[in-house]
Amino acid sequence: MRIALSVAVAVVLLLLWQAPAEAGRAAKQAAAAVGREWRWGLTVALGAALAAVWLGPLALRAARRPVPSRWRVPIAITSVLGLGFLTFLWVFHSSSEPASGSRVGPSRSSLAVQSGALVAGLAGGAITVWLNDQRRRHDDEDLAHRREQSTAELAQDRERAEEDRFAKAVELLGHSNASVRVGAMHALAGLARSAEHRTQTIVDVLCAYLRQPFLHYSWDSQPPAVDPAESDYIASLPPEVRASASRELAQKRVAAEREEAKERAEQDREREVRRTALRLVTAMLPRQAPAEGQPPIAVDLTSAHLDDVSFRDLHLQARWAGAHFHGVASLVGAHFHANADLDRAHFHVDASLDGAHFHANAYLDRAHFHADAYLDRAHFHVDASLDGAHFHGVASLVRARFHGDARLDRAHFHANAYLDRAHFHGDASRDGAHFHGVASLDGAHFHGDASLDGAHFHANAYLDRAHFHGGASLDEAHFHGDAWLDGAQFHRVASVDGAQFHGDASLDGAHFHGAASLAAASWAHLSVAGADFCGVVSFPPSLKEAKGATVNARVAVALPDGWRLRTPGGTSELVAPAAPDDDDNHDR
Questions:
Q1: What total number of domains does the chain contain?
Q2: 121 and 242 share a domain?
Q3: How many CB atoms lie within 10 A of CB 342?
Q4: Which pLDDT tens digit goes with each residue over 525-578?
Q5: 192 and 142 share a domain?
Q6: Are residues 537 and 449 in the same domain?
């Protein structure tokens, strides 16, 4: 609209400064003298009007105020009339009156009126278009504002309705009727589906319900309803009172059995309620990793007593310190984001964590696995701490990967422990650990330092083909059974100071790239057949078999009495002492 007005003003100014063509020379001079005054005045007036048209809305917009609607029509009428009047004046003063009796054209006043009406009409049309556009914009803005207000009101109503549903459902969780409690839990789960931002709050409420004290009669031995000593006491009574005492005891036993049956029925109902709560919690957990910057859903089951649980392939944050899992715990493929706290947790039945991922620190200190524990192919992406943990059943960590430090100090493996082909990328510590069953670490890789100081292997220990890329320390370790390290690779120093090998120890085919002080340990029977010793080495007197073993003669080598080195073709081989009836004695 403003562009149209600017074009109209430009046309007016062009006509204003153009001299009339039909005037004579004297008339042109007179018109020019008179018209110059009008032209300058009209030019200033039109320039001021044009500046008001362009700068007025800008000034109001700069002040963050739209043009008031009550001003728009008066401004439009004034502008139209002003342009029409100015055009009338310009045409009237710039044109000459036709000669008397001439029929060439209209009179000067008619021409001025027609020109003013034409310009006013054009300006009025342009201003009408502008006013309609302003009205449409105002209506759109008003509609958008009403929509925003309606949306906000709907959101507030929805928020109030959700709050009411949440409060009523939480209140019903304390109802004495088990079916009412189950219904309240389903109501909370439905609210979580319709309002995802409340999922964490609802999970917290259900977990708080599960943390309430509860023990099922099938989880623990129950005392007898009637003390057996009472029967013995009645048998010792005189015959005249024994019958009445027996009847009282029978009545007492019947009442106790009824009460026990009632309690057990209530415990069964509560058990089903808790199973429902646990199923709803797992149903609310995602199967995809949380978006960047979004925290995982925390499941706080601290000190809770639970039945069968399944978090298979789910993503969560576990806070399970002191929890008791009385049923099968299936955590296969689960992803634990943030620190996983399972300190002092008790798994009374089999625990399966095959392929589980611990993306932050994993704390299982003093945890008890009363049955078998399966952690095959589990990934510990940061540090893993199992200090003082007890594995009462089979412990399987085959192909497990510890990307940070792994601590199993003072851990107890009461049955067989399998860590075959496991990878320890950080430092691995098993100081003071007890392996009461077979300990198998075949093909395990220790990329950092490995410490088994003071560890006790009560049965056979298998470390065949194990790789110790850092330092290996077995100081004060006790191997009560056979120790097999055939083909093991020690890339740095191997320390066995004070270690005791009570059974057969085999280092056949092992490679020691650093120093190995084997004489500092106590060996019942040591075999190093085919082993390579590239660094400083000392052998104990109990060395029995060394066929094919080679040492580096350029470094210090301490041999037992009677043993010697033979260097055929530049290699140094260990030679056992000659038999007593062997006539061929060679000096070292």
A1: 3
A2: no
A3: 25
A4: 999 999 999 999 999 988 888 888 888 877 888 888 888 888 865 568 888 887
A5: no
A6: yes
Residue 210 has pLDDT above 50, yes or no: yes
Q: CB–CB of 362/385 below 8 Å?
A: yes
Q: How far apart are CA 143 and CA 121, in angstroms?
A: 32
Place of tokens 């034409």: 118
483 and 367 within one domain? yes
Task: Answer for the pair 517, 538: CB distance below 8 angstroms, yes or no.
Answer: yes
Q: Report the C-alpha gap between 49 and 57 in whole angstroms.
A: 13
Report residue 65 as tokens. 């105020």
Tell me whether residue 305 is in a domain: no
CB 266 within 8 A of CB 181: no
Produce one character per residue of 504-514: b if its CB has 16 or more CB atoms within 10 Å, e if not: bbbbbbbbbbb
Crossing angle of helices 239-283/228-235, nearest 10°?
170
Q: What's at 99, amino acid-wise?
A: A
- Quick one: 11 and 49 in the same domain? yes
**Residue that finishes a domain, picked among 132, 149, 166:** 149
The residue type at 325: F
Residue 299 CA to residue 312 CA, distance in Å, equals 14
191 and 144 both lie in a single domain: no
Classify the phi-psi angles of 570: left when phi > 0, otherwise alpha if psi is within -120 to 50, otherwise beta. left
